[in-house]
Amino acid sequence: MAVVGIACRLPGAPDPGAFWQLLREGRGAVAEAPADRWSDAPVRLRRGGFLDRVEDFDADFFGVTPREAAAMDPQQRLALELGWESLENARIVPSRLRGTRFGIFFGAVADDYARLTAGAGPDALSPHTLAGLGRSLIANRLSYLLGTRGASMTVDTGQSSSLVAVHLACESLRSGQCDLALAGGVQLNLSGAATADVERFGALSPDGECFTFDARANGYVRGEGGAVVVLKPLRRALADGDDIWCVIRGGAVNNDGGGPGLTHPEPDAQREVIEEAYRQAGVDPAAVQYVELHGTGTRAGDPVEAEALGAALGALRPAARPLHVGSVKTNVGHLEAAAGITGLLKVVLALREGELPASRNYRTPNPRIPMDEWRLRVHDRLGPWPSPEAPLIAGVSSFGMGGTNCHLVLAAAPDPADLPGATAAAPADACAAPAPGSG
Length: 439
Prior knowledge:
The protein has 439 residues and is α/β, with parallel strands linked by helices. It has 14 helices and 16 strands. The model is unreliable at 422-428 and 435-439 (pLDDT under 50).
């Protein structure tokens, strides 16, 4: 499978180029909530990663009437924008997709706009409300706009939703149900009541930062935004001369299934999904140079994830060559439904550029994580890959609150010059992602 386009709208980064600059410079995009946010309920912790002007939308461009646009969840609007931009980056003319088996897979969990609409009373309802607030429509609107006939679904597995969406897109391409696919996720934190729910659950850091794998880890800070990739079979991408960004070699999904609690992570299940991902990808786990963590910075989550990684990947390595890890949540916050695709995009960019950005907010190792014993090292400064002369292999993890875990295996794009006859011999079940702005 291959990707021919990419797009994002993230805190402090309106496009992939700006996102890479933010990562390279080690900047954080977490700030105080805009004054017009979360007015429907009191929220004690008002920091987060936010987009600017989420109310802006060119309804006429997408053939949407003003009244319909006003009734639409802004997550639907964001999905339309990201889908269109990714096709532009892929040099695909949208009109040529009409009637094709183009699959669309979006991760989404939030219903903030529905809460706000309900709170506004009966006068806020219109004939467009039902379709405007339905989460399934996040994917379906883009299928309708493009006139495509492939699978079209909104995926909700909690915080792992967008990475699971990418996995499902790869599997759909591998089985031949789709010829081309778009996958990603969106998350907008519009409701104070929804943020108060997360706050009462006890997941948020009182410091308003993610301190992943650090001794200060005490919860996460919420973020919002979205990102997508367009996937295509690698053989076809090579034959079409696409500018391939990276290759998704394979992945796996499972569930904690009866762990210590419904919302408590389970290390054996996380270890199993990681091990299965490398089996499915046909990649030696010892070859992995970097893993983009789920890495929320919670007291329970970080030690469990480290234990699972240590068992699945760290134990296979000599002490002198630890596995490098990091979390983009330290830059932009935890994007919940869009967290996995944000981490994947970070790795796509790092593979393309041949550099690994720093994982921020790491000063003192978490005393509950024996980093040396588990052969792990937080990549806390911008620099080259640990073994730049070797094949660049990375993993991306994303775990849902209800126990649905996903891990994908990525590799640097093959050099066509090194692949004589590659258009005939490239593995049909690999996925590739092209460079942003390649169109």
